[in-house]
Design a protein that fits this description.
mainly alpha; four-stranded mixed β-sheet; two-stranded antiparallel ribbon; 25 helices; 63% helix
């Protein structure tokens, strides 16, 4: 059977190479990837909604409020699946894609095609306070990566197809094809040229058509703008921009703070127990933290904050607007806590939709504060709810254009384009100056594995240290005599540098040919002088697995050396020469800009 399959694939390859050009084939694949990513998104949503609906029928939330125990059940199911089926550590969906693009040539394990379809609905459906967008993008990326591998697509085109998958997934979930394209460009640092533009456009269209086919005209936000932008409100939108910037910084720092709090809990069982109980307590106090939170956003948009807040222990005081404001501000604060706790406890999900929930609550709070300040000002609470979402997306994701076009598209118009630009721009500028990297990119940036729009840095990130390490250097030992060194190493080497190592291959230093040149022809010294006499420190050394290619390049620049030794935890591995490094850089640059 495998032989017949291989023969069939070979026939398909031959037919494709003969009848379809590479450019046309990429366009076809982008459509297919968009459809499959859209289908994955629809599947994720439907499975999650099915779980939520089943739990609502089985447990009457309004009468006994047992829902606060559900997250720990969902996290337990995810833990069992990961331990006994997946058998690998879970990584953040978007971060793992960025890593595959920068260091794994766009190759993603085929298991990721179905893993997120299982664990994300279990997490969200049972009340985990995370979103489905990240898992949808990860599933689409895995599909596109393995489709590219099947058809022997090169790494650069495979990366483009992964970006197409993300566009298809986002377009399907939000029915916003333009924002989906911009997200792929902003988050995946894709160069927007006509070569990449058309595949992204085709994938985005395919994704949104898939959503329309399976979901009809059902939209996430059933809202139409009735109150247009008024110039007199400009100052308030600036204020909202500053507020969302502060919230974005809080969101990011809270994420890493809680992740660090969970690190001492080595056992996944302890993380699950602590995280599940913590989420349960927060859900009991603040029910809108349950699941993704789209119902909460929609209720705020239609002005029904009572329904948005649901049943809480503070229902007797809900007629007081300041209690309502306090509860909504509590959602702004605790959504980030609930989301991060869900992920730290072992759950699977994304941060994009929780960002929107937090932004909607903050925008609504700001509007209510203005309207109830007693100063005679009146603003649209619905508009501020929408623009608050844009401000948080711009700040947390460092994606201002995505934020602007996403909110504009899901509201069906551009009536709020000016305030969207004001708030998103201010939020992005302040946050970017305070926080260099996003939740997606911080760890990758610290290890030098992040692709950016900086072409020089991107090329260095794509380079692999293994490809430039040279091992044809004759090593010597410190106890060797000068005569032994000349006979065993110098006479047999074509290089002018000799690494000094001990019996365990630990790197001790170097000897240059110039160091021994004046002693080479004095035979009287052959047995009296040892190698350790000439050994000296290298100008610097490259730490394998720790130094990024940017760091390696910087070390050459700082030292002015032509060769630097490579060590792995002190063990000698070889040398990197400046000439070979620059040659590899030029070669990668040509590939990158084709």
């Amino acid at each position: 059977m495998p032989i017949q399959k291989n023969k069939l694939l070979k026939r398909i390859y031959k037919w494709r190479y003969k009848h379809i050009s590479q450019k046309t084939f990429i366009y076809i694949l982008s459509v297919v990837v968009g459809l499959l990513a859209g289908l994955a998104s629809v599947t994720l949503k439907n499975i999650t909604y099915f779980i939520e609906a089943s739990l609502e029928k089985g447990i009457i939330f309004s009468s006994n409020q047992l829902y606060f125990i559900l997250p720990i059940i969902g996290l337990t199911l995810v833990y069992l699946y990961v331990k006994y089926v997946h058998k690998e550590k879970l990584n953040h969906a978007v971060s793992s894609i960025l890593f595959s693009l920068s260091k794994n040539k766009g190759l993603i394990d085929v298991k990721q095609v179905y893993t997120q379809l299982i664990i994300a609905p279990l997490t969200v459906g049972f009340g985990g306070s995370v979103g489905l967008l990240g898992p949808a993008v990860a599933t689409g990326a895995a599909i596109s990566s393995n489709l590219g591998r099947l058809f022997h697509i090169n790494s650069k085109t495979r990366s483009l197809l992964i970006a197409c998958a993300s566009a298809g997934a986002i377009s399907s979930i939000f029915q916003s094809p333009i924002a989906a394209i911009i997200f792929a460009v902003e988050v995946f640092s894709l160069d927007l040229t006509m070569i990449s533009m058309l595949p992204l456009l085709l994938a985005s269209i395919s994704g949104v058509l898939t959503s329309y086919f399976f979901m009809g005209n059902e939209v996430l936000f059933n809202f139409t703008i009735t109150e247009p932008f008024e110039v007199k409100d400009t100052l308030f939108y600036i204020l909202l921009g500053v507020g969302t910037a502060v919230a974005s910084i809080y969101f990011t720092k809270m994420y890493f703070g809680i992740i660090n709090l969970f690190k001492p809990l080595k056992s996944p069982k302890y993380r699950l127990l602590v995280g599940g109980l913590t989420i349960g307590v927060m859900l009991y106090m603040i029910p809108p933290l349950y699941g993704e939170g789209f119902v909460f956003i929609n209720n705020l948009l239609i002005g029904d904050h009572i329904q948005a807040l649901g049943k809480t222990p503070f229902d007797n005081y809900i007629d007081n607007i300041w209690v309502v404001i306090a509860l909504l501000f509590g959602i702004t604060i605790f959504k980030a806590v609930a989301m991060t706790t869900t992920l730290a406890a072992g759950g699977a999900g994304g941060i994009f939709i929780p960002t929107m929930v937090m932004g909607s609550a903050l925008g609504n709070v700001v509007a209510k504060l203005i309207n109830n300040s007693g100063l005679g000002f009146t603003v649209s609470e619905s508009n501020f709810t929408l623009i608050g979402m844009a401000g948080l997306i711009a700040g947390v994701q460092h994606a201002p254009l995505t934020a602007i076009f996403l909110i504009a598209e899901i509201t069906g118009g551009y009536a709020l384009f000016v305030p969207l630009m004001i708030t998103a721009a201010i939020s992005y500028i302040i946050t970017k100056n305070a926080v260099d990297y996003t939740i997606y990119t911080r760890e990758l940036a610290e290890s030098g594995e992040l692709l950016t729009h900086n072409k020089d840095q991107a090329v260095l990130t794509l380079m692999d240290l293994d490809t430039v390490i040279e091992t044809n250097f004759k090593h010597v030992y410190p106890e060797m005599t000068l005569g032994q060194m000349l006979h065993d190493s110098v006479a047999k080497s074509t290089r002018n540098i000799f690494p000094v190592i001990d019996a365990n291959h630990k790197f001790l230093g170097i000897i240059l040919l110039d160091d021994i040149r004046e002693f080479m022809f004095d035979t009287k010294l052959y047995t009296t002088i040892k190698v350790e006499t000439f050994t000296h420190k290298a100008p610097d050394q490259i730490n394998y697995g720790k130094d990024s290619m940017q760091t390696v390049m910087q070390k050459f620049q700082d030292t002015g050396a032509w060769n630097l030794p490579v060590v792995n935890n002190g063990i000698y591995m070889g040398f990197v020469s400046k000439s070979k490094l620059l040659t590899a850089y030029r070669r990668e640059l040509i590939k990158f800009t084709k």
